[in-house]
């Protein structure tokens, strides 16, 4: 049975219907006009793609639930529905539905037809993997396949069972809050509140009242009694983010609550009991802050009963393609885009980049790229300049001393030497692997390294030749 394109056109207004049908036929698509007697829900699944182009009023005249009924029979059918602009909000939010405002513009119709075709092509080639079967998720939010992330998943599952205080450390954007939420979600406290507090975002003089609440009249502006985050988190979890920014006097009070499991609201002398699990996080090195006496040692030990460190993304590069794929799916859905992915070269650039902003930076980049690109593949030319650095690395000749001279000028704002050297080294290693088709022995010879040294480097840097 041959699989052919098929558009079904539904419109009570004959003139518009004939125009749409003639236009699609002219563009080379097989088109069927649905007259009054045609069964809207008996879709012929031997045709592909299956796209309905319909006037909203005519569609709803058949049934107010017409779209859902069509999708029940044929879940991959795309509906291009046109109506007056303000009718858009009456339509369900669904990636299979494309709205087109009236009056119909044939250029716009052509472009949404392309989108619909791309959507279906994508669905046929890449059936979505059910989340449950996806092996690299925790709580369906944290993604990673690197050894470090799999260890982290295990750790989170273990610590969730207890109520011990957890201290999560890691650079900004590595997913500390996500990890804290997962611990709460997997714990027996999950039906109660998860209450986050960003200690760095709240002015010092307000943080105490924010945490413990206050009684009316306790300070200027305290017009009424107010409960604090500790009370809100009773029987649940309190997430103290950026704990390293908490001022010394408050550190003492927090220590007392951790020890006595009770606190007093600002302006009150009455102690209140609470049952709160504390998860603290910091992107500063608390060890160093303890050494410089910026953080109390006793509080540090109280908080770090279970210490967890989330490694920066550059130390687990094999997670990058997985994360890109995840965010791509998410933003294609959210922004109603049909971007198919990143080209291999673009992906390689991104895998070589150092991601100082970690997963947050990666997520923002993918969102920006998907929003701007709309469909097709994202290529190296679409990437912002800063992500291209490794491509500009051309293996220069060895200097007399045997060291490799840096081919770029030092920018006026300076550079991070370690990252630059690291990126430069990664670029050369990947080039050597490319040139030798992934043969490590030959690549090592090109780099004047022992094969085992190259393998060690690849492992240490988490570099993978695709
Ligand atoms: N492993 C991951 N999988 C999926 N998304 C992630 C992952 N890690 C981080 N993210 C996403 O990256 C963004 C930053 O994560 P999060 O806020 O948890 O980081 P953080 O370490 O707490 O940052 P900060 O130190 O700046 O508070 C969020 O949008 C989060 O959903």
From TrEMBL:
Note the Pfam families from the entry.
AAA_lid_14, HTH_8, Sigma54_activat
Q: Which UniProt keywords apply?
A: Activator, ATP-binding, DNA-binding, Nucleotide-binding, Transcription, Transcription regulation
Annotated Sigma-54 factor interaction domain ranges read: 142-371
InterPro entries in the record, alphabetically? AAA+_ATPase, AAA_lid_NorR, CheY-like_superfamily, Homeodomain-like_sf, HTH_Fis, P-loop_NTPase, Sigma_54_int, Sigma_54_int_dom_ATP-bd_2
Q: Has the keyword Transcription regulation been applied to this entry?
A: yes
> Do you know which SMART domains this protein is assigned to?
AAA
Could you mention a single GO BP entry for this protein? regulation of DNA-templated transcription
Gene Ontology molecular-function annotations? ATP binding; sequence-specific DNA binding
Keyword Ligase assigned to the entry: answer is no
The domain of life for this entry's organism is Bacteria
This protein is called Two component, sigma54 specific, transcriptional regulator, Fis family
From which organism does this entry originate?
A: Trichlorobacter lovleyi (strain ATCC BAA-1151 / DSM 17278 / SZ) (Geobacter lovleyi)
């Amino acid at each position: 049975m041959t699989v052919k394109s098929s558009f079904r056109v539904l419109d009570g207004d004959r003139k518009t219907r004939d125009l749409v049908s003639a236009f699609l036929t002219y563009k080379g698509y097989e088109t069927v006009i649905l007259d009054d007697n045609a069964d809207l829900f008996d879709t012929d699944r031997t045709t592909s793609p299956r796209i309905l182009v319909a006037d909203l009023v005519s569609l709803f005249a058949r049934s107010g639930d017409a779209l859902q009924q069509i999708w029940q029979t044929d879940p991959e059918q795309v509906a291009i529905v046109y109506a007056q602009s303000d009718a858009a909000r009456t339509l369900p939010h669904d990636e299979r539905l494309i709205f087109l405002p009236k009056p119909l513009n044939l250029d716009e119709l052509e472009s949404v037809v392309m989108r619909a075709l791309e959507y279906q092509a994508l669905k046929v080639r890449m059936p979505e993997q059910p989340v449950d079967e996806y092996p690299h998720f925790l709580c369906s939010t944290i993604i990673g396949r690197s050894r470090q992330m799999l260890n982290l998943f295990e750790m989170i599952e273990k610590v969730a069972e207890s109520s011990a205080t957890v201290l999560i450390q890691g650079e900004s954007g590595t997913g500390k809050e996500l990890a804290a939420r997962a611990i709460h979600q997997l714990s027996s406290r999950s039906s109660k509140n998860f209450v986050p507090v960003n200690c760095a975002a709240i002015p010092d003089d307000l943080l105490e009242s924010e945490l413990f609440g206050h009684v009316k009249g306790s300070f200027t502006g305290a017009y009424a009694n107010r409960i604090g985050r500790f009370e809100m988190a009773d029987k649940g979890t309190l997430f103290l983010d950026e704990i390293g920014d908490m001022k010394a006097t408050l550190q003492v009070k927090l220590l007392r609550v951790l020890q006595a499991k009770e606190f007093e609201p600002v302006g009150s002398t009455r102690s209140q009991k609470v049952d709160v699990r504390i998860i603290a996080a910091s992107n500063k090195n608390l060890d160093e802050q303890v050494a410089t006496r910026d953080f109390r040692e006793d509080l540090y030990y109280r908080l770090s009963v279970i210490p967890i460190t989330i490694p920066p993304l550059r130390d687990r590069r094999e997670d990058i393609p997985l994360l890109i794929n995840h965010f791509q799916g998410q933003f294609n859905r959210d922004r109603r885009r049909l971007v198919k992915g990143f080209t291999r070269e673009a992906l390689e650039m991104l895998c070589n980049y150092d991601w100082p902003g970690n997963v947050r930076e990666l997520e923002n980049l993918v969102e920006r790229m998907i929003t701007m690109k709309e469909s097709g593949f994202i290529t190296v030319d679409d990437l912002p300049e800063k992500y291209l650095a490794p491509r500009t690395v051309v293996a220069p000749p060895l200097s007399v001393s045997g060291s490799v001279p840096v081919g770029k000028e030092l920018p006026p704002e300076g550079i991070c030497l370690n990252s630059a050297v690291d990126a430069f080294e990664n670029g050369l290693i990947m080039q050597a692997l490319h040139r030798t088709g992934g043969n490590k022995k030959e690549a090592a010879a090109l780099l004047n390294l022992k094969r085992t040294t190259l393998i060690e480097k690849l492992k240490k840097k988490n570099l993978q030749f695709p």
